[in-house]
Sequence to fold (519 residues):
Amino acid sequence: MSPGAAPGPVPPAAFEAAPPGGGPSCLLPPRPAPCTVVIFGASGDLAARMILPALYDLHRHGALPGGLAVVGAARTPWSDEAFREHARRALERAGRLDQDAWAALAPRLFYQPLDYADPGGCAALAARLDELDARLGTGGNRLFYLATPPTVYADLARNLGAAGLARQGRGFSRIVVEKPFGRDLGSARALDAALHEHFAEQQIFRIDHYLAKETVQNILLLRFANAVFEPLWNRRYVESVTCAAMETLGVGHRAGYYEHSGVLRDMFQNHMMQLLALVAMEPPPAFDAEAVRDEKAKVYRALRPFDPDRLDADLVLGQYGPGAAGGAAAPGYRQEPGVAPDSTTPTFAAMRLWVDNWRWQGVPFHLVSGKALREKLTRIVVRFREVPHSLFRHILGEDIGANRLILDIHPGNAVSLAVQAKLPGARLCLQPATMRFDFDAAHAPARALDAYEKVLLDCMLGDQMLFWRQDAVEQCWGFLTPVLERCEACGAQGAPALHGYAAGSWGPAASLETVQGLF
Fold:
């Protein structure tokens, strides 16, 4: 291909299996309009591990628009060819490189070096994008993905606006912001003000890839498309709800970020609060972005504030120490590179919350997340109340296990219902039985989109269903900021204790009862 020639169109969808009974494909949405995807921080880890492989897979399966350009932008002084080589190596490391698919995508990758704080950099970028619009037919549609440190979000948003790149007219302009959305309520509001200097709310996509996981999306369908569950989804029948996101890895190379974040900012303000909202929200009047996000915001408004004098009753914080993982010795958090030897940053939290509304009054919600734990597991467990009267008391005694609905998000992708059944034999004996639906096994021939593929497509399509809205961001920070302030006053009166736990364990002893409820 000659240097000035336009690359060929992206191939049509490689798979578009119709659901039973015919109709449009359930695997892919309509292809987006032509556009240019600009990745700020293109030389960084997030772009290499997540964004570039996701774009490549969407391209390989024909889900990207026919008119497409991908422009990397970062401080690294690369050429177009150097960026393409960087992307190719990233795909090789991910084990996803197909030479034919890569040959078709590579000519659509470009690079523009710039300093994030320099307004002139975005002016030069604007000129480059105009040239690509004319050459590749991208229609003036631009998607700006900020895969950079959060400290430069505000500068980038302002510089994009000053260069005229936030204006919509000939095409759309959208900006994608990765969490964290600030570090507390004040900084979240300051970031939002910077974004809104040039971008309207409908142009801002606050990404949370947890929401794009298949089982997470299925929570609403499971609740609201099945009459068997929703009548029981309330304080009368549910005893407790536990949401957990547990990781086996320590902080590794992320210590520079994690020391200033900790588990509450890293996981609770975003992922865990979203899981809570999906389980607790009321049925929206329609399945559209604003209606669903309205109901989530109502959940956050109904959260009971923590009692500052009883934090230890509702919050267990921990930090991993030396232990063992995978049969090998594992360092403690304070031994990780870049971590202060006297660090008090929590790497584990178990939190008990109360949603003070009609549906959930008196039902505890337990949120658990931590690093360097025994298993990698993301799971929601809805524990129903025990039967109110045991007609089997004289035979089986009082101990009849409660029913549990288990939603496995990772590594499994399944929904299970634990019930009691009779053990075969002459005597009347109970045994737990599980009814399980495995999404992966049931749809083995189909290829579901992974989380980053799904959110990238939604950004191109302008669908904000799986993205945070600013009012919810502020409500969550408003709920957590007083807790964070108390937690960070380590050693001060009223500050919660920081419990140690061994790497490769289930976490602090004070939280084991909550963790055991997951199994």
